Amino acid sequence: MTRAESIDRPYHHGDLRRALIEAALALVTEEQDWSFSLREVARRAGVSHNAPYNHFSEKRDLLGAVAAAGFEALRDRMRAAIAGVGNPRTALLAGAAAYVNAGVENPALYRLMFGPALATPAPVVRSGTASADSGRPAEARAAGAGAKAVLDEIILRGAERGVFAISATSKSELAIAALSIWSAVHGLTLLLIDSLTGSELAIDTLVNRLIRTLLEGLEPR
What we know:
Helices cover 64% and strands 0% of the residues. By secondary structure, the protein is mainly alpha-helical. The protein has 2 domains: 57 residues, Arc Repressor Mutant, subunit A (Orthogonal Bundle), CATH 1.10.10; 150 residues, Tetracycline Repressor, domain 2, CATH 1.10.357.10.
């Protein structure tokens, strides 16, 4: 058996795609960049330089799959953080902290997931606006929605139990509440990545105070 045959054999049952994604993810994580070539990814995965084209027609497709893997990992990390946490407020704090820490620990992956690298010009709709995600790979969009669903579920649970002052039957109120929290933790993540918070507080403490401020509001009572 030749070396090439021994390398190719494990991928006959669909493992090649996963191996390429894992190789690219490892490169993003180690180099904190995604300027590598498909040839480098193939070398890292231990396959021929043409192998990536069996699953990805271009590098952007592979990076979209890497972003999707990042969103899936984020979803799993948030779910693990809130597992067994009954109080929606406590769950929100734990989920938000897991979110921010995930982004800070791997800035390049976070920027790939949310930044403009994967975007293509989005079509303008009649209202004069465009969907922020319409130009992103479908796989990344779907995985991103799965991660956001964890936050949506916490907000809904809090509304149903009366912990949050929003209607559990109002889709608009639930959406705005989730968007407010998501905007806050996303912004904090980027500020921490770029060392722009101006604070020396630990990440979990910052997240805790940020979410509490949002929940309690700034207006006097």
